[in-house]
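Table S2 (continued). Query chain:
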Amino acid sequence: MVNQRVRASTVLVSAGLDAALVLVFVLIGRASHSEGLLGALSTWWPFLGGLAIGWVALRAWRSPQRIVWTGVGIWLAAVAGGMLLRLVSGQGVQLSFVIVTTIVLGVFLLGWRGLAALLRRAQARRGARIHPLARAER
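Corresponding output:
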């Protein structure tokens, strides 16, 4: 499965996409509640912390685009770690927010990995050169 070294660019793009998609989640949430962008960082940092915990705990740089275990683990760490960090920092953690967060981050963090896998498969079938974003471990 994962026999070759993962390129540094693949790791950086994967980590960047994860962080950017968590930020998109935060911005959508703040906009849906008519809240300004100013507080986005206070909402983003706990989930970014959970995401970082997941990356380190799973050593995600070894296979950053795998859906199972990497993607699922990062998703769950971002949600659980984010909620825990929100709780200890005095931010709200309502059940409805946990449910929405779990669903949206699942779609975002697993979704791009699924799309990248589909792109890799399609390009491999055509024998085409694999786009850098779709390049990953096999």
